[in-house]
């Protein structure tokens, strides 16, 4: 006689076969579908880290909203930072469809347990940093995220479509800030070059560790969450930057950067991976400041959450009253 345990093993095997088939045929996995636990965990990890990055990523640029050089620049920067908040919210919502709560994710972030992108632990001392972030950081984000529009998990892929449209506006506004500075005074050109010198290498590190030190890549690519390896995307990004740097008249700060006819790609210098892993361990120039700021903002926003919950409670009571 077949035991209930055997039956559930058969069910799981059927469900796994269905899941594998959907992934193999480029069909989307939706929240209602069965999925392996490890797939769910990987998605929660990546999507929540991605959401945290968008939220923490508001801080380096938020730093310049009150000091933007003109009303127009201030309006653009505010809209951009607001877009990042929106991206964080779409992504938290996508992660919630996998069964994790927003409170849990928030706790993981403010307690310092969760990772967020290394790039946001660097300071923004000059206005040119707004240009360098738009051009390099949003540029890297686009290269990384366009393939994620085809991620096998439906809510993640769909969120990415909208995020990428906004990121391309962000990238262009960063490029335009740098172009304006490069067409200005000697001092402005130096400020632009200095910002690019500081953001170039950390933006390359955004793509994650080299392929031979990337423990999650192989499985994530099999599941079609990731479509390209960290190194492939990094290479693609550099190929995109070189002609844009020429238009800007900016030098990319890598003396080893040169076109290789044989490989059909750019050779480049070594990224400082020790620095990258130090930032991941919480020891970057701004890790403590970023987390402290987020924690304080969360505490100071408690009354808004309470008011919203109370409003929702009253609305629900009113609706029940109408039904009765
Ligand atoms: N920073 O096996 P790997 C934005 C971690 S926001 C920190 O290659 P995976 C914007 C990685 O999590 C853009 N940690 O991992 C916002 C893993 O640790 P765990 C943010 C990193 O997941 C405001 C370990 O290292 N973009 O654009 O296969 C203003 C080993 O790595 C980083 C996303 O989040 C890093 N840079 O690949 C302006 C994109 N890199 O989790 C702009 C979505 C790696 O095992 N995420 N780690 O403890 C991804 O595409 C992938 O998660 C990654 C890493 C390519 C980042």
TrEMBL record:
InterPro entries, per database record: Aromatic_CoA_ox/epox, Ferritin-like, Ferritin-like_SF, PaaA, PaaA_PaaC
Domain of life: Bacteria
Coiled-coil regions listed in the entry: none
Record-given protein name: Phenylacetate-CoA oxygenase subunit PaaA
């Amino acid at each position: 006689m077949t035991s209930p345990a055997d039956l559930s093993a058969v069910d799981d095997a059927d469900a796994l076969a269905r899941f594998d088939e959907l992934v193999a045929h480029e069909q989307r996995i939706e929240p209602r579908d069965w999925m392996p636990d490890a797939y769910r965990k990987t998605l929660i990890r990546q999507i929540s880290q991605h959401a945290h990055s968008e939220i923490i990523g508001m801080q380096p640029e938020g730093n310049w909203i009150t000091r933007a050089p003109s009303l127009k620049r201030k309006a653009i920067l505010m809209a951009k930072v607001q877009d990042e908040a929106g991206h964080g919210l779409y992504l938290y919502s996508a992660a919630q469809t996998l069964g994790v709560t927003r409170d849990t994710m928030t706790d993981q972030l403010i307690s310092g347990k969760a990772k967020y992108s290394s790039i946001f632990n660097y300071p923004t001392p000059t206005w040119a940093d707004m240009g360098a972030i738009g051009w390099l950081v949003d540029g890297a984000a686009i290269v990384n995220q366009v393939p994620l529009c085809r991620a096998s998990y439906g809510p993640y892929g769909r969120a990415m479509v909208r995020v990428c449209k906004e990121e391309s506006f962000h990238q262009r506004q960063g490029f335009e800030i740098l172009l304006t500075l490069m067409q200005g005074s000697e001092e402005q050109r130096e400020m632009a070059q200095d910002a690019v010198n500081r953001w170039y290498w950390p933006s390359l590190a955004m793509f994650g560790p080299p392929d031979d030190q990337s423990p999650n890549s192989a499985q994530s690519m099999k599941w079609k969450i990731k479509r390209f390896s960290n190194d492939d995307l990094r290479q693609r990004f550099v190929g995109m930057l070189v002609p844009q740097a020429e238009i800007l008249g900016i030098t990319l700060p890598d003396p080893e950067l040169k076109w290789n006819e044989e490989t059909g790609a750019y050779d480049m210098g070594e990224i400082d991976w020790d620095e990258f892993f130090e930032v991941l361990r919480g020891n970057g120039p701004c890790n403590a400041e970023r987390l402290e700021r987020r924690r304080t903002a969360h505490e100071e926003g408690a009354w808004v959450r309470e008011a919203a919950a109370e409003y929702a409670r009253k609305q629900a009571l009113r609706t029940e009253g109408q039904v009765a």
